Structure to design on (82 residues):
């Protein structure tokens, strides 16, 4: 299933991703640090959403209280609960 998440406090404004039985199959960050976000998307591909949350939740970016990775965990949490 495909999802779209509006971010807050980070450069990318949207995260598009696909989940199949709780497994992350695709991630696309719209905006932000292109190379780093492509790498993050590849690293989580094939990972169970709960494992990605466990590994990425709470990561910050500079002085910001969140990061692209942290925002992705918020997206995953929103949609795996529904």
């Amino acid at each position: 299933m495909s999802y779209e998440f509006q971010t807050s406090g980070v450069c990318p404004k949207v995260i598009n991703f696909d989940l199949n039985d709780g497994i992350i199959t695709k991630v696309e960050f719209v905006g932000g640090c292109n190379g780093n976000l492509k790498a993050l998307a590849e690293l989580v591909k094939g990972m169970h959403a709960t494992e990605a949350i466990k590994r990425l939740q709470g990561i910050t970016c500079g002085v910001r209280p969140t990061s692209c990775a942290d925002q992705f965990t918020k997206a995953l949490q929103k949609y795996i609960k529904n």
Notes: The chain has a mean pLDDT of 96. The first strand starts at residue 2 and ends at 6.
